[in-house]
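[job 4417] fold queue: 2 targets
>>> target A
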Amino acid sequence: MSRRPIEFQVSPEDQKAIGKILTAGIQQVRVVLRAIALEQLTTGQTAPAVARIVHLSPQAVRRIAHRYRTNGLDGALYERQGRGSKELLEASDKQRIIAMVCSQPPEGQARWTVRLIAEEAVNRKLVPQVGRETIRVLLSSHDLKPWREKNVVHRRSRRRVPPQDGRRTGGL
């Protein structure tokens, strides 16, 4: 017992847009699979048949069709904005904190710690409030480890150490 095909039509201008997406160069795989699903649904295929073609579940194919009906082509093809909270620090806040970390630590401190960075960022009024985890993630994304000794390049000595028995080596 198979399901009836979904009553589904894509407008001619959206069909042209889908064609451009499918013939264009590099695209996100999700977008291409969704475009193929819409194209196949337009031909009258059932959701399970389309699901086998694009390697998605039938429910996912029906969801793509529903999103097309409610939100149009962009809503069906592209991800909607995430539901998570917005970023705690703006780009300018991040830059100011990174600049602070690249400078010398406060008087009486040997090096920066994550806790110290969070406290100093608030004390210096760079940000109204910030947590240690936010600072840790920021430092990690910039590959900074201020709690370690500064990366100092030590020049290797080219001087040869004479042998212990007093003999000279090398030469003729």
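>>> target B
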Amino acid sequence: MDKSKGTKKRIYISIAAAAVMFVMLAVTTYSLILSLVSVEDNLFETAQVQLELNNGQTVFNGDDMNIEPGHSIVRDFTVENKSTVEVYYRLYLENVSGPLRDTLTFEIYDGSTLLFSGRADDMTRESPCVDSNPLAAGEVRTLTAVVKMSESASSEYQTASVSFDISADAVQARNNPDRLFG
């Protein structure tokens, strides 16, 4: 009988110890979660970053690039923030080819504010057009692209062409004061 009482007592003590450990684990886990979530200015927020350039339509097509010395082609286009947060964006040219690349100047405006001015080879991913004003979630901004041909361009460019892709990237604005793109 003494053995059976001793065995029962050990079982009860083991169950009680397991229950106490379970309660301690639950309290510790709850405290840890509460401290991570409720510390001011230490909140972590996930977000979806997505940008749409000109509703997926081309800004310039081959038919509208008939340009002569001293003239410009002007096109409005949109940048839409389809993200869940405010973002910074950058615009740049890719796949630039053709002899006109040396005589054309590209300018990007937000209203009357000049965001970028340079040749096609200057507007790269490493040296992009970056707006210092972030786009709010859901905001659509209309920009203006002006492509100018140098007045001093010679007749050698008369039948010349240029092709390029306008590309855009976005990065979350929060906690990114230097507008660093990954």
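[job 4417] complete. Note on B: The CA atoms of residues 52 and 80 lie 5 Å apart.
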